[in-house]
Amino acid sequence: MTSVIRQALRTAMKLDATVNNKFTKLLPSRHLSNDFQTKVVEGMNGEKIISSPYGSVTYPEMPLHEYVWNTLPNYSNMTAVVCGVTGRKYTYAQARDFSNYVARSLLDIGIKQGQVIALVLPNLPETAIAFLGCLEAGIVITTVNPMYTADEIAKQLVSSGAKAVITSTEISSTILEAVNKSIPGAQVIVINDRIKPLPDGVIPFEDLMTKGQSLPPVLAPNTWSFDDVIVLPYSSGTTGLPKGVMLTHRNLVSNIEMLKGTLSDDILPPADGTHQDISPVVLPLFHIYGMSAVMLIRLTIGAQLITLPKFTPESYIKVLDEYKVTSLSLAPPIVIFLSTHKDVSRKHLESIRTVISGAAPLSETDINRFYNKFQLDQEKVSFFQGYGLTETSPVSLFEITGKKYSSIGKPVSNCEVRLVDPITKKDVESPRQTGELWIRGPHVMKGYLNNQKATDETIIDGWLLTGDIAYYDEDLDFYITDRLKELIKVKGFQVAPAELEAILREHPNIAEAGVVGIPDERCGEVPRAFVVLKNKGQTSAEEIQNFVKGKVSKFKELQGGVQFIDCLPKNASGKILRIKLKQNPF
Fold it and tell me: Is the pTM above the cut of 0.85?
């Protein structure tokens, strides 16, 4: 791919404003040069607003599920999703029909429009069908990490107000335990993943897909708005415990179009009935990156998604062996795996055109190692990095030249950003000065569920405060340098220090505890606890690590160890100064 990449500029689209909310087919057009310039515009109050160099895009005000299926006639007989383990698969026509039948069945069993269903699912072909079926029924989705313990799942079920759960046989026992602890009597729908038998008392997902065909069609809600909340993934924001992020049709539809408006057809090639993009899906679909920036956007272009319920070297290499994979969407640990594993060779990447990495920073050294191992031509295989958050649906910046490896690039179409000094609250004036990254656009969340205080602290005058510290260079390309927010990123997953601290305080010999992330070559970061004991010498670090195990998912465990201290550093209001713990002067 040349350094001058064909960018996307979507033409304005006239919408058919009928009462049935039917819209004309999207008709994209591409401009032929990279002449757009990133500009800094001064706002009314002296803000230094940096807009996208890729122009603006229009997006249809249609429900997300209708948007996903909008161009399906172009590739209805092509494979939509296939299981990388068992090989079971669905064409686009089948996936669309089954999602409609699922929608009918969900309403038939008593789930009401506007209520919440929890999807606690690994990456399966049916995950996409369940997701889109819920949306078609007018049901709100909260996605839950399937690696969570029963207690962690129970907390999210209560917080989100879930009325039912869709899960798989492999983890059904954990889900049933969580449901009994939180929403006893709720309906549990189970996908047969061929790993364990269906438990008693559950509804087989297959029944929803088949019986729905004979049920009445789904009627549109009496009131429908493009700004209705449809998905509730959970994020800790900049600090604190996990919160439900309220994402709307507008947020998700606009962000997909914003990304398409930034990237070329080389990166997101539309299927034509003969050729299609083929991509393994190992990034978890409960996470906003896998959900929207992989699953939803690639379904809108007719890509073939090969789902893997979990990452194992054997299963991932098997997929690379059996399929002519054309694109990879990865997190840094998988890039490093490809670059270092002895059984991954050049033949596995023969069809690859693009590699996209996100969720956590990846160094130039790591990318060079990837190219050097496989002797790849950088003009033919392009490597890109993007930046986003759950709160921005997710993509906000993207590096599209494939040249500045350590950069997160420029704002995507329709996205504006600022850098604001966290102390003075003044906008950064010049390149290489750092500030907190603020983001504005139609992709910014509606707010946090039932938490107006956290919403008001995170969104100010339409600007979302990311908690990430960044700078831009002379070309107005952005670079993340640090986190103002206190979240720990373990393999791209968020770990909230407050959650682990609350668990540690349950230990009978712990008076106080503070948790921070420390660098780790394999995971990016891992949690380390700083602990004040009530009775010194009576509790070991190993005992405390074991105390946390079993109460949280494996990635939240104290892999960074436990350090005993006499007192925690705090500010005048009593807040733990985690930055001082990170500096570790003890």
Answer: no
